[in-house]
Amino acid sequence: MSISHLNSVELFSGAGGLALGMARSGFQHEMLVEFNRDAVNTLIKNHDEGQAQIKDWNIKHDDIKNISFKKYKNVISVVAGGPPCQPFSLGGKHKAFNDHRDMFPQAVRAVRESKPDSFIFENVKGLLRKNFSSYFGYIILQLTYPNIVKDEAESWEGHLSRLEEIQTKGAYRGLKYNVVFRLLNAADYGVPQKRERVFIVGFRDDLAIEWSFPKTTHSKDALLWDQWVTGEYWDRLDIQKSDRPLTNTASSKISGQLNNKYGLFQPEEKPWVTVREAIGDLPCPKTNNKYNSHQFRDGAKSYPGHTGSPIDEPSKTLKAGDHGVPGGENMIRFNDGSIRYFTVREAARVQTFPDDYHISGVWSECMRQIGNAVPVKLAEVVASSVYAAIASNK
Question: Among this protein's residues, is 85 annotated catalytic?
Answer without folding.
Answer: yes
